[in-house]
Write a structure and sequence with these properties.
Number of domains: 2
Largest sheet: 7 strands, mixed
CATH architecture of the largest domain: 3-Layer(aba) Sandwich
Radius of gyration: 21 Å
Helix content: 40-55%
CATH class of the largest domain: Alpha Beta
CATH topology of the largest domain: Aspartate Aminotransferase, domain 2
Strand content: 5-15%
Order of helices and strands: HHEHHEHEHEHEHEEEHHHEHEEEH
Length: about 400
């Protein structure tokens, strides 16, 4: 066999998101692209904001030498300084460039974090439903993912979390606003989570990191507030990217930020910078680092995503689907009318509608909708949702 048994097994389990995306390609060939309504992949249809294009053109015309050369592995000092200033404004904490490491997106950031902190066999708790790649990121670096289910509203159950934390726990990975549910963790919840972690650190005599994956932080609705993990747990690390708020997923630009109150942060930053290099990332893309310096307060038009959310949510509720209204991100995670979510997803495919079964996010009996798509795609999908709802006898409210 030319590939490892482990990778062969993981490929067989695979990513349900990618699997559905590939099914969409086949359906589009069969029925025509305009007749297939693909809500499977979180690949923003929106273009980057005008300020991005303006900065890109300025950079392209600049005669400054060395724009494409290597830089310190942590990233350009001017880029990290701009991010640190933004985080200082958001948190009220004094954050400097020395607490920032530029990365190849949030996925790259998480791999760097886990490479830096995990010993073989240590556990990372992840909260279901979760982004399916998390288990592979943890496994990549000798860690063991430990899955804890959230409640029916997708909020962490602190009692269950208390029981799950053990002497082997090295970190808890959270994601708010959440993929796949769109749920935002409240400040009171984060405060309670911080208290629990401090209690457990004292009980086991070791640090437990709170790692926050935040690529959707700036995509929130209805005046919902986002609270920083830095305010609630000293041993905290942020991994994030500009993929969603600037609609740049293919550019792979993100960063890691370490809590400024962490006592041995210099050692951790050195480890993160070293792992950024030795994992083969070397450094984050130079052009993107230059571009984002003056884009710290810029986002895509979030009101467009809110409009799409409202259309989907109102229509699905009227058809009888059970769904928690998202407060952020651009995903929705309704309950499937039947427990077999894979069968339900296949039923939708008969109507040329593509979504992802909840199985792929660690929560059976649900399905994920990605609504960062065109209005035409959403409107076209509603017919299929309605037909399957009628088939299963759902009653609208």
């Amino acid at each position: 066999m030319s590939i490892s048994n482990k990778i062969k097994d993981q490929m067989t389990q695979g990513s349900w998101v990618r699997r559905m995306f590939e099914s969409g390609i086949a359906l589009k060939k069969q029925h025509g692209e305009e007749n297939v309504f693909d809500l499977s992949l979180g690949n923003p249809i929106m273009e980057p904001p005008p300020q991005f294009l303006s900065e890109l053109l300025k950079l392209a015309k600049s005669r400054k030498l060395g724009k494409h050369r290597y830089m310190p592995n942590a990233g350009y000092i001017e880029t990290r300084t701009a991010i640190a200033k933004q985080l200082t404004c958001e948190t009220g904490l004094y954050i400097t460039a020395n607490q920032i490491v530029m990365t190849c997106g949030a996925g790259g950031a998480l791999n760097v974090v886990f490479k830096a902190i995990l010993n073989e066999g240590e556990e990372v708790i992840i909260l279901a439903p979760f982004f399916g790649e998390y288990v592979y990121y943890i496994d990549n670096h000798g860690g063991i993912p430990k899955i804890v289910q959230t409640d029916s509203n997708y909020v962490p159950n602190l009692g269950e979390l208390d029981k799950a934390i053990s002497v082997k726990t090295k970190a808890i990975l959270i994601n708010s606003p959440n993929n796949p549910t769109g749920v935002v963790y409240s400040e009171s919840l984060m405060k309670e989570l911080g208290s629990l972690l401090r209690k457990k650190e004292k009980e086991f005599g070791r640090k437990i990191f709170l790692v926050s994956d935040e690529p959707y932080k700036k995509i929130v609705y209805d005046n919902v507030d986002i609270t920083s993990v830095f305010m609630h747990h000293t041993h905290s690390i942020v991994a994030t990217s500009y993929s969603k708020d600037l609609a740049l997923p293919g550019e792979r630009i993100g960063y890691i930020a370490v809590n400024p109150n962490y006592i041995v942060k210099e050692e951790l930053i050195d480890a993160l910078t070293f792992c950024n290099r030795t994992l083969g990332f070397v450094n984050a893309p130079a052009m993107m680092q230059h571009l984002i310096i003056r884009l710290q307060n810029v986002t895509v038009d979030v009101s467009e995503y809110k409009k799409k959310r409202d259309i989907l949510y109102d229509n699905l509720k009227s058809m009888g689907y059970s769904v928690v209204k998202p407060e952020g991100a651009f995903y929705m995670f309704p309950r499937s009318p039947i427990e077999d979510d894979v069968k339900f997803v296949n039923d939708l495919q008969e109507h040329n509608v593509l979504v992802v079964p909840g199985l792929g996010f660690g929560r059976k009996g649900h399905f994920r909708i990605s609504y960062c798509v065109s209005d035409r795609t959403i409107e076209g999908a509603l017919t299929g949702f309605r037909s399957v709802a009628n088939y299963y006898g759902l009653t609208g409210k």
